[in-house]
Amino acid sequence: MENLTMSQLLFPSVDKTPADYEEMYPPRALKEGAKVTRFSPSPTGFLHFGSLFAAFVASRTAGQDGVFYLRIEDTDKKREVENGVIGMVNGLKAFGIVPDEGALSESEERGSYGPYTQSMRNHIYHAYVKKLVEEGLAYPCFMTEEEIAEIREKQEAEKVLPGIYGEYAKYRDITVEEAERRIAAGEEYVVRLKSPGKPEGRISFKDEIKGKIEMPENILDIVLLKKDGTPTYHFAHAVDDHLMRTTHVTRGDEWISSVPIHLQLFRVLGFKAPKYAHIAPIMKEDEETKGKRKLSKRKDPEAAVSFYAEAGYPSGAVNEYLMTIANSNYEDWRRANKTESMDKFDFKLSKMSKAGALFDVVKLHDVSKTYISTLNADEVYNAVEAWSAEYNKELHALITADPGYAHSIFSIERGNKKPRKDIGKWSEVKDYIAYFYDELFDGEREWPQNVSEADRKALLERYLEIYDPDGEAQDWFPQVQELAAEQGFARAPKEYKNAPDEFKGHAGDVAGVIRAAVTGRLNTPDLYSIMQTLGGDKVRARIREAIDK
Ligand code: GLU
Fold this sequence. Notes:
Blueprint: H1 2-10, H2 18-24, E1 36-39, H3 49-62, E2 67-70, H4 84-93, E3 101-103, E4 109-110, H5 122-134, E5 138-141, H6 145-158, H7 176-184, E6 190-193, E7 202-207, E8 211-216, E9 223-225, H8 233-243, E10 248-252, H9 259-268, E11 275-279, E12 283-285, E13 292-294, H10 306-311, H11 315-326, H12 330-336, E14 358-359, H13 361-373, H14 377-391, H15 393-401, H16 403-411, H17 429-433, H18 453-466, H19 473-486, H20 493-498, H21 507-519, H22 527-534, H23 536-548
Parallel strand pairs: 1-2, 2-3, 10-11, 12-14
Antiparallel strand pairs: 3-4, 5-6, 6-9, 7-8, 12-13
The structure holds glutamic acid (GLU).
């Protein structure tokens, strides 16, 4: 009776009961075993690579059969920024992560388990706290900040567990009369859980990533509702993940220490607890100490996801990399299934690193090179066009001036069995294609070391005479071999190796001289294709210029 009166005193205008909400948000009708996951950021607008990773893991866990939703945890108004939700939504979308349900912007959402923004759910939290008060499992606490600070000091001095519990929980058994009097006097209060935990109690649970974990049971009378009536993270987590029918809570492992509180909340609320998967932070090798540390927003540019867009790492490549660090067996799978969609890979939480995967830009670059090598010329053109429009106007102007020409450049050695892996990010494209454009070609040439200047000139003069812009691919190298033989070079490396004193070098060196004359470089994709793309006039002009220089 006393509890009922207390609950009415604290929540006079709450007219719905937990049973009503249970009915409004029934268990989801999904395939047997389908998982429901969520990503639940604070709307700070800033997407850290670690958060992107967490969202990726949640979305991959739900997979094709499950539901992955976005919940906005905006109960801490201090951390909020304007249009933070849109910032997060777009941030995820840029990497192809589009939740099935949840917040879409500051004012829109999709799905029937909402509202998906915590600040719009106070009426729901209040109904559940009201019930706990009614059951004698929660109470109003009028302790002031000063009182709490004093208790903390005392606990520190006595080296006992800090917090409000047992003898420190001054208002645990407050009467309705006292509560009424204090409220009437305008005193502020929070609502606390009356923790049923025992000091000697232990809990254990199986974390999907970390395995079995055992910890002391929670004995703290933690805050459920703050003075302004908004929920704490702990309480909102229990109510939201229950009503949104989350099956797997994937979140940062800084929350492991709160699991005893969470399991207790699920129990007192009569909810089935979700499965937990605590993700270790992404680590980085520290350049100074050579030790491992967390990827840091302050020290590492790659911690902000804007880094990837600016550098021009395709989102598909970043996804490949995310999966590589999520499940270390992914790389082998990818090697064996080069063209399969990542969706076919059997992602497993249990295969994630317990201690924290290591972020490695070199590896990312490598993964990205492989990824880009699988794109066709159209895809490359479109991606470079979009990237350069934002980040490199000069490149953008060049490629869009003659899209057909740019397409043929990007077609070189693409779409064949072993495509080249020259490009790791779009910011490398300008340099990669520079020699195709007179505007970018600086005339500097790196020559093969083992051919003298005189031989070089002779080779190029003669090549100008025999060069046929309309020649077929299969005739190109034989012609270079002819030229080689005529100018005292061997036709093949082997021939040269067998009798190094008889030759000046071999046909490969001759091709190198032509390559350097035309492109300025010693290493390029297929030279015949390059020359066909450049066209006869430009090839001749480049060779002439190389001779005269
Ligand atoms: N809002 C919490 C955070 O940003 C989310 C933790 C969770 O996923 O439960 O850390």
